[in-house]
Amino acid sequence: MTKDLIVSTTPQETRVALIEDGQVAEIFIERESHRGLVGNVYKGRVSRVLPGMQSAFVDCGLERDAFLYVADVLEELDENLLSPEELPSGNGHGNHRHAPIEERLREGQEIIVQTVKEPLGQKGARITSHVSLPGRYLVFMPTVEHVGVSRKIVEDEERRRLKGILKDIRQQRGGGGFIARTVGASRSGEDFERDARYLGRTWDEIRAVASRQSAPALLHRELGLVQRLLRDLLSDDIASIRLDNAREHERTLELVRELQPELSARVRLYDGPGAVLDEHGVTAELEKALRSKVWLDSGGYVVINQTEALVAIDVNTGRYTGKKTLEDTILKTNLEAAREIVRQIRLRDLGGIIVADFIDMEERKSRQKVMAALEQELKKDRSPSKVLSLNEFGLVILTRKRVRQSLERTLCQPCPYCAGSGLIKSVPTVCAEIYDEVRKLAADVRGQPLLLRVNPEVARALAGNEAGVLRDLAALVGDDIRVQGDPLLHQEQFDLVAR
C-alpha cells in the first residue's frame, strides 16, 4: 500500500488528508483558534470530588472543568507530586493503592494531569494523572514501571530484543515506563536512547515549570497537527508529502530530515494552478463525509446516523439486483459495505459504540466472510477497536476509541431551525395546535376581528387542504380570521392578535 499526505495550510486552519492507494482514508483538521487539547499537560486544581461517582473535576484553566476518574489517579501522588502536608489520608501505599477517590484527592489540591480525550458536547475534557510522552520510536510513561512493545510487532525475537533495549534504558534512567512503537521495529538501541533522553528532558522541564507556577497552568503543549502526524505516520510507506504553504513546507522538510533524512526528497511544495485538496479529490470526499447516505459502486448504499449515544449504520441493496441467487446478491453487497463502513469510520473519525446493521444472511459461511472482511479492513485503522461477532440478524457491534470530535461535529453545528433534531412539526400538526390554542382563548376574543400570523407554508395550507380548520376557527370566535404569512416566523410558530 502506498500512502500520501496532502497538507493545506491557511492562517485560520490546517487540513491534512491521508491517501491510501489513491483513495482518501483519513482527514485531519486543526483550527488555530481551537487547537486540540489531547496530549497537553496541565497543572490543575481539584475543584470537586464526587465519591458517589468515584471521580473528580479538575480546573485546568479550560472552558469547563476536566473529568478525572479514580482509575486515572496516580496511585503514588505523595512521592511524585505532593508535598508532605498535601498527602491524602490513608495508611501507606499498601492501602492507598486501591483507596477510593476521596482518600486520594481533596478539593483545592494541585496535581499534574494530561488530556486524553477532547471535550465532547457539554462534557469537559477527560484527563489522567498518568502522563505519557510519545516520541518517534517509543512512549515514555514517567509515573509507571512498565516495559511493553506495540502489538503490531508480532515477531517474538524482535519483541524480546526491543524489551531488552527498553529495560536497559529504564535501568539507566532509574525508573519509568517505556513502550516501543510500531515504527521502532528493527531500529537500533541508539535510536531508542536518543528518544528516551529527549523525552526525559521534556518531563524534567514539565516538572520544573510545575514547581514554579500555581494551578491552573499549561505545562506542555502537544505538537501541531502536521508535526504530530509526521511523528506518528512517517515511514517508507509514505510516497509523498505535498504542502501548499512555503513556511509549513520548510518546517516539514526540517522535521523529516531529523526523523528520516532519506525521505526528505518526498516532501514537495505544491505550486499547481488549483487548490491541492481539490486536485487530489479531498474536498469532494469531505463533502460526501458530511452526508448520511453513502453509495456503493455496486448500486447499494450505506446510511450513517450519528447520535449522542452511538453511531447507527444501515446497509441496503439499493439499485443492485445481482446476477445469481439472493444469498449471493446479499453477500456481495455486505462485503462491499464492510469495506466502505470501515473507510467511513476512519474518514469521519467516528468513535464510541458503533452498530452496523448488515442485510440478513442465511448461511453461516457468508456471515464469516463479512466478518473477515470487516476485521481485515480494521487492521488499517490506527485507533483501537473491538468487534462483536455478526449475529443471525445481521447486527455487528463494535467499539472504537474516541479521542476527539468527529468530522461532522468539527465542521458542523446543530441546525437552528430544527434545534438539531433533524425534524420539525408538520403543517397539519401546526394547524391542529392553532385550533387548540384559539379554542382556549375563544371566550376572551369572541366577536373581535383577529389576525393570525403564521409561516407562509402554514398560510398556504390554511387556504388549501387545511381550509376547514380556518372555518372552524371562525365559528369559534364568531368572526372571520384573516391569515397573514410571515417568512420570519418558524414553521412551528404563530401569533393571534386583534386587528
Description:
The protein is an alpha+beta fold and 499 residues long. The chain has a six-stranded mixed beta sheet, covered by helices on one side. The protein has a five-stranded mixed beta sheet with strand order 3-2-1-14-15, with helices on both faces. A hairpin with a 3-residue loop joins strand 9 and strand 10. Helix 13 packs across helix 14. The longest helix has 24 residues. About 4% of the residues have low confidence.
Helix content: 25-40%
Radius of gyration: 29 Å
- The geometry reads as globular
Strand line-up in the sheet with most strands: 16-17-18-19-21-20
Task: Estimate the mean pLDDT confidence.
Answer: 87
Total of DSSP H or I helical runs spanning 4+ residues:
15
Q: Runs with pLDDT <50, length 5+?
A: 76-96
Q: Name the beta content range.
A: 25-35%
Q: What does the largest sheet look like?
A: 6 strands, mixed
Number of strand elements: 24
The termini sit apart by: 73 Å
Structural key phrases:
single chain, 499 residues, alpha+beta, six-stranded mixed beta sheet, five-stranded mixed beta sheet, 15 helices, 24 strands, globular
Topology of helices and strands:
Layout (H helix, E strand, L loop, with lengths): L2 E7 L3 E8 L2 E9 L9 E10 L4 E5 L6 E4 L7 H4 L12 H4 L4 H4 L5 E8 L8 E3 L4 E2 L3 E4 L5 E3 L6 H18 L3 E4 L8 H24 L4 E4 L4 H9 L4 E6 L2 H14 L7 E3 L6 H4 L2 H7 L4 E3 L5 E6 L3 E7 L9 H23 L3 E6 L6 H15 L6 E3 L7 E6 L6 H5 L15 H19 L4 E5 L1 H7 L4 H11 L3 E5 L8 E5 L1
Parallel strand pairs: 1-14, 6-8, 11-12, 14-15, 18-19, 22-23
Antiparallel strand pairs: 1-2, 2-3, 4-5, 4-7, 4-13, 5-6, 7-8, 9-10, 10-12, 16-17, 17-18, 19-21, 20-21, 22-24
